[in-house]
């Protein structure tokens, strides 16, 4: 019996991929009577046990007229490491399901599981990774270098499915405004598709500015752009808006201000040689890297325009100011909001010595 598992922290992508896979797995011309979908969102551990029992019953029942049958346990939320998943009743249900899946069931039956997360330490998780068609889709970590390029590939793919073209500045702006959430990316592309209509398929910067909502990550990006433009008033307004929503100041400085200043510094450093590729090996060695070890050219290109607003000594001083502010947020009893305000004012002060 074929078994497919679609899981990961990117719930929008998991849902999309599982739905597509279900349609692919269904026998041609099959209807709802030939396949079974079991909604997997459980309210508690007993509910999780019952959903596993329903899946087992469906697996052990042949399709109408003995035709091929797909059983989909959809959007299950009790295979992870949360309170419900860890409860004895839920664990028992999952173990019972595993025993059935490991048996020699008819080849005519296919099992598809989509889940918000799977505990890789438990027996089911270990078995699933080793013995099934296992397809993980995790959210892109926006704290890591190179996340923009990963998101840009997703945006390009989703746009292409709508026969939209989005590239260059338009693509950069879309990535920074929409962030890394697959569901929001799809929603924003849908909005652009409707807005442009059938006759215009090229997405412009103006289209993105007008139609694409600013996500949480987009606000972070707006703070970065304000700092690059030395617009202290705008940066402070945005910081206050996030702090009012209980945003952690330490997380804010590490997600927005420090990476911005660092990229400005390295863009300025490499810019003296005309391009990153022409910079000496010693400078290339300290440039921010992606996971694969290559230079994060996306971040440096984004910062290159803003770097023109600063001298190299100013950016060296700014790096030190960021370090002091970061220490103050972690070790002192100062008001976090005031620490960030003072830092932004220092970074954006046009009177600082060049």
Oligomer: single chain
Number of domains: 3
Secondary-structure element string: EHEHEHHEHEHHHHHHHHHHH
**Integer average pLDDT:** 89
Structure description:
- The protein contains 16 helices and 5 strands.
- It has 354 residues and is of the alpha/beta class.
- It folds into 3 domains: 3-136, 3-Layer(aba) Sandwich (Rossmann fold), CATH 3.40.50.300; 147-211, Helicase, Ruva Protein, domain 3; 216-348, Zinc Finger, Delta Prime, domain 3, CATH 1.20.272.10.
- It has a 5-stranded parallel sheet with strand order 2-3-4-1-5, with helices on both faces.
- Helix 2 (45-59) links the parallel strand 2 and strand 3 (69-76).
- The chain is elongated, with a radius of gyration of 25 Å.
What brief labels describe this structure?
single chain, 354 residues, alpha/beta, Rossmann fold, Helicase, Ruva Protein, domain 3, Zinc Finger, Delta Prime, domain 3, 3 domains, 5-stranded parallel beta sheet, 16 helices, 5 strands, elongated
Compact summary:
The protein is of the alpha/beta class and 354 residues long. Helices cover 58% and strands 8% of the residues. A five-stranded parallel sheet has the order 2-3-4-1-5, with helices on both faces.
List the helices and strands and how they pair.
Blueprint: E1 3-7, H1 11-25, E2 36-39, H2 45-59, E3 69-76, H3 83-86, H4 88-102, E4 109-115, H5 123-131, E5 133-136, H6 147-161, H7 168-178, H8 182-196, H9 205-211, H10 216-228, H11 232-243, H12 249-271, H13 281-286, H14 297-307, H15 312-331, H16 336-348
Helix pairs in contact: 2-4, 6-7, 6-8, 7-9, 7-10, 10-11, 10-12, 11-16, 12-14, 12-15, 12-16, 15-16
